[in-house]
Design goal:
By secondary structure, this protein is α+β, with helices and mostly antiparallel strands. The protein contains five helices and five strands; from the N terminus they run H-H-E-E-H-E-H-E-E-H.
Length: 178
């Protein structure tokens, strides 16, 4: 009859043989070229509110809202209004703050937030600290790029509004080929 010592000896031999086999085969396996990288996570909290939601029916409504949130008119600010299906403002974001006569805006910044919020459509707005309502070439070009990106993302840009202290201009209403 085998004793406890002889049984343990047999299993120890098997264990050591298995470890030697694993060491030989591990050396043959290729090591991965890349380390694991973690993708940053975004946490979005959806809160309901009892406050009255603001409806955007015309460009003048968007301009009034933008004036209410912009306190500094010495530099250009680009703002995106994210709308729900009934054209109420679900959220808004200051996309960029520029200098006295320009501000950079990228489709990535606008549409990343739109997707997170679940926006159905977007209205872009920016102020002109100079007081001029005349859209620049860059204003028209960024509007075209954003409309193209909105078509791809299925989140349309409804308008691009230029706001000053004295008035506002809707690029949609001003353009024949919107």
């Amino acid at each position: 009859m085998p004793t406890a010592g002889s049984i343990n000896h047999r299993f120890d031999c098997c264990r050591f043989a298995g470890e030697a086999f694993a060491r030989r085969n591990m050396a043959r396996l290729k090591k991965p070229k890349f380390k694991d990288n973690f993708i940053r996570e975004v946490n979005v909290n959806y809160r309901t509110t009892t406050e009255k939601r603001i409806a955007i029916k015309e460009a003048i409504d968007a301009a009034a809202f933008v004036r209410s949130v912009l306190t500094d008119n010495s530099r250009e600010h680009c703002i995106a209004l994210y709308l729900d299906a009934s054209h109420h403002i679900a959220s808004y974001s200051v996309i960029s703050i520029g200098g006295a006569n320009s501000a950079f805006i990228a489709p990535r910044e606008v549409f990343q937030r739109a997707v997170l919020i679940g926006a159905i459509s977007i209205i872009l707005a920016h102020n002109h600290p100079s007081g001029s309502l005349e859209p620049s070439y860059q204003d028209r070009e960024i509007t075209r790029r954003m409309k193209d990106a909105g078509g791809i993302m299925a989140i349309p840009i409804l308008d691009h509004v230029i706001v000053t202290d004295q008035g506002s201009l809707s690029l949609r209403e001003e353009s024949i080929s919107w």
